[in-house]
Amino acid sequence: MKINQFSITSTTPQERRHELMQIHLLRKNEEQTLTPNAMFETFLARIHMASAQPIVTKQWFHDLLATPESALDNWFAQNTPLTDEVFYLVALQLLDFEAAVDFSIADPLTTIKKINLPAEYHQHWSTADVIDAFYLLLNTHNKNGQSLIDHLTAEGFLAWTYHLPAEQKPIFFNGKPLASFDPAKFIREVVYIETDMDTDFDGKADLIKAEIMRPIDSEHGLKVPAVFTASPYNQGTNDKWGDQATHNVNIPLHHKETKYHAPAEEKFPTKFSHQSMTGESKHATETFSTTPAYTLNNYLAARGYAVVYAAGIGTKDSDGLQTCGSPEQTAAMKAVVEWLHGDRQAFTDRHSGTVTKAWWCNGKVAMTGRSYLGTLATAVATTGVPGLEAIISEAAISSWYDYYRENGLVRAPGGFQGEDADVLADETLSRTKRPADYRRIEKINAKYIDKMQAAMDRATGNYNKFWDSRNYRHDLKNIKAAVMMVHGLNDTNVRPSNVKALYDGIQDLPIPSKLILHQGQHIYINAFRSLDFSDMVNLWLANKLWGQENHADDTLPNVLIQDNCTPETWTAFDQWTEGEQKQYQFNDHRLTNLPGLGIQSFNDQQPEEKYLQWCKQPQAWAKALINDNGQFSRHFVSKAFDADALLRGTPTVTLKVASSKNYGMISARLVDLGNSRRLTISPVLFNRNGLELGYHWKTDDLREFRLEKEPTSYKVISSGHINLQNRTNPAQIEELAANQFVTVTFELQPIFHRILAGHQLGIIIYSTDYEYTLRGNEQIEYQLELAGCHLNIPGFTILP
């Protein structure tokens, strides 16, 4: 077990004492009048939430160990000097670690260092030392993944703060607001924000429904910041529609005509009316009970942030059509930020014309969320909209072409073969949940989806105007918000190329940026035991939204990486790509420093029975690919590594290749070969509802990656695909003759991977990818001229 904390910010002795007094843990003159032992005993008595009665506290002390031989109450009675061993033996128990399971009672300091808990050591403890060490202990994470102060708060330690005057909130501790806002009194209201577009062709500006949850204190003069999640899934989905709309991928690739251009997508009206204002109200007339929520937002809500959800155009109780990542969808979510900032009008309901303002908001907004949610946060940030101070962009798309296409090919996101922009639009058109409303737009929507299908162009897989309008990278220069990016290095849904392009594109901008790369797939990381992610976000948003001078940008790492070999290990770096460039030549079946000679070939066609089996079970194909003897792929492997090495950045593959047809595609997988126990593919749940987000409030399930019980012989660490007719770029079709050798260079997915001594690096070159590409099962022979084939890794470092 290892706990990594990056959110503990530096404070002065005066600040620490002020904060301890503010939470009623330290009182005036106690530092001058109490001995170290008495100060320690006083702190412990005040955090005991079961009862304030001395007899109950004494019994609690009687059940805590101070030394291997002495209970805490007896140790206090003996009045022996406080030592590091005593303080941290008690600390481990307060942090819910189990004696004889998690630590040895005879040697608590070894466990403190092994688990990586912050600590202060003193040869002779003074009262001031006790105060400083206890302050640090309150900020230390326990076995269940939360700081001691948050754990105490969840037990009611700060319930008295619910009744404080609004002007005395929030209460900041170590630069972060504490959970001092009463969840039982949250105000829940609905507003309808007017946009400047008409995407359902009804002649009226689209209205967007937003659901708001804010603290009661905002009714009494406290201006609070808003955390906004733009989620097209929030009002429901049409899963059966998505299944029915899914495209057949068991079809062959074909030759592309060089002069082909896809038709344009639908244009929306430019002339429409806005709703007339008939009056103004301070409060909305509509409320809601629950809404699908991100648990990070629940955590933040108890700490004074207003939480806002909007599903956008084409969703239940809003106007418009679903346009899947278009500029119109971005504009709809931007409108929510504008209203929160005070720059746009909203109505208390859909028809009365009664305007309401976000008068309770301090005008500062952050956007949060994963996948489509994080994508829209990125999209809105590229507009440079005033009021958007920060985004937390998790597993987000930065170009929709990279989500549904790759280098002139139709390429599915992992696990969703046959999905495309039109399918996602169908799935998220939750206006169907209001049948009469849907009937009014049914024909208009069907016409729009037909045009979308043609414009997105599954026929060629080319980059075109449809995808260009959904490429947010064009406008990265407009970003003014601070950006925190979170992505899984093993995410096969939204692939890491999306976050790498965003990260690279903003490094020269005058904005703070942070990057966190974990070893998961398409997941949230705010409920990991090994990382204080929620605290990091709280510290960061306290700076960006509350204006706290808490050194957040200096405290949090610029790049934070979860190690792929050792569980619960996170390491800070300055940048993603660093190290020497390493080039491997393809030589016979090896990756070497010397170029190879000759030609190697493979045939993409499979027996019909096996083909059909692999179409149904792509995972079986993936295993067969690793074990293929050269029938449908070629394998090239390095020598075993003498020492651990770090591979960082975006690998590229250059191939001199020919197809026996006048079309073809090439795929590649980069593989770590070696027998090891690797991390589980997904985090393991080990404490359901174990993470408390506030007092009498929500919980989250505690998760963590573990080592698999059995070793495995390989791990795919990157992959890539290219159409041989898109050798120059995805938008340009080039002629290809049968058996014509051409040179293609294409990027694999970005990596940050530690390869262990004794392991080998392998690359597999093949064509059809049953997990991601079209699957035609054609009789095509591919040839590789080895002298023109090599692999480049931009950041390569041998570790000491």
UniProtKB/TrEMBL annotation:
Lineage top rank: taxon: Bacteria
Enzyme Commission number(s) of this protein: 3.4.14.11
SUPFAM superfamilies xref list: alpha/beta-Hydrolases (SSF53474), Galactose-binding domain-like (SSF49785), X-Prolyl dipeptidyl aminopeptidase PepX, N-terminal domain (SSF81761)
Stretches assigned to the X-Prolyl dipeptidyl aminopeptidase PepX N-terminal domain: 1-157
Keyword Protease on entry: yes
Keywords from the UniProt entry: Aminopeptidase, Hydrolase, Protease, Serine protease
Keyword Hydrolase: yes
A Pfam family recorded for this sequence: PepX_C
EC top class, as a word: hydrolase
Catalytic reaction list: Hydrolyzes Xaa-Pro-|- bonds to release unblocked, N-terminal dipeptides from substrates including Ala-Pro-|-p-nitroanilide and (sequentially) Tyr-Pro-|-Phe-Pro-|-Gly-Pro-|-Ile
PANTHER family (alphabetical): COCE_NOND FAMILY, PUTATIVE (AFU_ORTHOLOGUE AFUA_7G00600)-RELATED, PEPTIDASE S9 PROLYL OLIGOPEPTIDASE
Recorded family membership: Belongs to the peptidase S15 family.
Purpose of the protein: Removes N-terminal dipeptides sequentially from polypeptides having unsubstituted N-termini provided that the penultimate residue is proline.
Subunit structure: Homodimer.
Protein name stated in the entry: Xaa-Pro dipeptidyl-peptidase
Species the sequence originates in: Limosilactobacillus caviae
Lineage: Bacteria, Bacillati, Bacillota, Bacilli, Lactobacillales
